[in-house]
Design brief:
- This protein is about 35% helix and about 15% strand.
- The protein has 15 helices and twelve strands.
- Strands 1-7-6-5-4-2-3 form a seven-stranded mixed β-sheet, sandwiched between helices. The protein has a five-stranded mixed β-sheet with strand order 8-9-12-11-10, covered by helices on one side.
- α7 links the parallel β5 and β6.
- It is globular.
- The structure holds ligand P1T.
């Protein structure tokens, strides 16, 4: 079956007791058992729930994996994957990644003597060099948050497997519609389903998808034993959101490309980061390992942080907020929002400075989005730096 068909049907049979076409919300904490050890496959809702089973099967099929597990948040999913590690183990990760993932590495698992080294995301040889005898996991985010850089999944998978190391890929930005890391050799895919997978900015969720049964059993054990499971209503909303994933992603991408092109020409914009632009350093790799370049665009604004503050207050269609992947367009200021948990010196060395803005391009009409960006960026009321001056200096 093709992706769009799976997105609508995978894991979702009509309800056996009524024929209801939509998977019911099994809003229950427990299941009645007939006798000791005798039940219908469900005992207690932390360990299992039929609505959750439908979502987990659907996500596994979309990523072309055998097993899916869903969690209360993307970070809970990541934490469950990190539970595979023991004190003394070492992680190699990329240097551009979601601030919350960095915080999880440094301030949660780091406390258990699990250390992480960060490699410039596109430096394939750098991942090999960073491996130590105690390295157990390579963790990639590609495209990265917020700079939209890419790592070569296939090449890094080879390196990982030569050293008997697990490769984890956070596929939140691309979604399985545009990129399938397990097909490229990754061992584990993680998602913040809060984002494109659900797509409607109305819940927090996460997922893990993989092929290896033993690793699956370990993460499933953690899901139950540590207990960060999603509620049945959130799971049901996610299933509903997934049904339109393919059409949404096509529109996100079409709008994002139009916006990236518009921003590239804009006098108030220093540089644009979007893997679908030929000027992007990873454009060729994007064409190889992704079937599209997604809906996220970041750009460097020309001006001061005060100017950036002025800009974000002016939006009428975009909203100034954290998160991404919903049908509505958002603008985020990574330095103060999503990446605020990374110390300033480290963040700035990685290119996440105070004048970087990140846009989650929604599926509104692209003309309205461009007009909104244009009015917010070009009104001539900036502090110490005016659009007029800049425009005047252009030939
Ligand atoms: O927010 P949560 O569902 O726990 O997911 C965490 C997470 C994991 N991976 C990536 C790539 C992410 O972008 C996120 C969350 N990111 C944001 C909230 C954001 O605005 O970037």
């Amino acid at each position: 079956m093709k992706f769009a068909t799976k997105a609508i049907h995978a894991g979702q049979e009509p309800d056996p007791s009524t024929g209801a076409i939509m998977t019911p919300i099994y809003q229950t904490s427990t299941y009645v058992q007939t006798g000791i050890g005798e039940h219908k496959g469900y005992e207690y809702a932390r360990s299992g729930n039929p609505t959750r089973t439908a979502l987990e099967s659907c996500l596994a099929e979309l990523e072309n994996g055998k097993y899916g597990l869903s969690f209360a948040s993307g970070l809970a999913a990541e934490n469950a994957v990190l539970s595979l590690l023991n004190p003394g183990d070492h992680i190699v990760s990329c240097d551009d990644l979601y601030g919350g993932t960095y915080r999880l590495f440094e301030r949660i698992v780091g406390r258990y003597n699990i250390t992480t080294d960060y490699v410039q995301v596109g430096d394939t040889a750098g991942y090999a060099k960073a491996i130590r005898p105690n390295t157990k996991m390579i963790w990639l985010e590609t495209p990265t948050n917020p700079l939209l850089r890419l790592a070569d999944i296939q090449a890094v998978a080879q390196i990982a497997h030569q050293h008997n190391i697990l490769l984890v890929v956070d596929n939140t930005f691309a979604t399985p519609y545009f990129q399938q890391p397990l097909e490229l050799g990754a061992d584990i895919v993680v998602h913040s389903t809060t984002k494109y997978i659900n797509g409607h900015s109305d819940l927090i969720g996460g997922a893990v998808i993989l092929n290896d049964e033993q690793v699956y059993e370990k993460i499933k054990f953690h899901q139950n034993a540590a207990g960060a499971v999603p509620g049945p209503f959130d799971v049901w909303l996610t299933l509903r959101g997934i049904k339109t994933l393919a059409v949404r992603m096509r529109q996100h991408q079409q709008n994002a490309l139009a916006i990236a092109r518009f921003l590239s020409e804009h006098p108030r914009v220093e540089s644009v980061y979007y893997p679908g632009l030929a000027s992007h350093p990873d454009y060729v790799l994007a064409k190889q390992q992704m079937s599209g370049s997604g809906g996220m665009v970041s750009f460097q604004f020309k001006g001061t942080i005060d100017d950036v503050d002025t800009v974000v207050r002016r939006f009428k269609v975009f909203s100034f907020a954290e998160s991404l992947g919903g049908v509505e367009s958002l603008v985020c200021h990574p330095a103060s929002m999503t990446h605020g948990s990374i110390p300033k010196e480290i963040r700035e060395a990685r290119g996440v400075n105070d004048t970087l803005l990140r846009v989650s391009v929604g599926i509104e009409d692209a003309e309205d989005l461009i007009a909104d960006l244009d009015q917010a960026l070009t009104q001539d009321i900036f502090t110490g730096y005016t659009a007029q001056k800049e425009l005047a200096s252009k030939p």
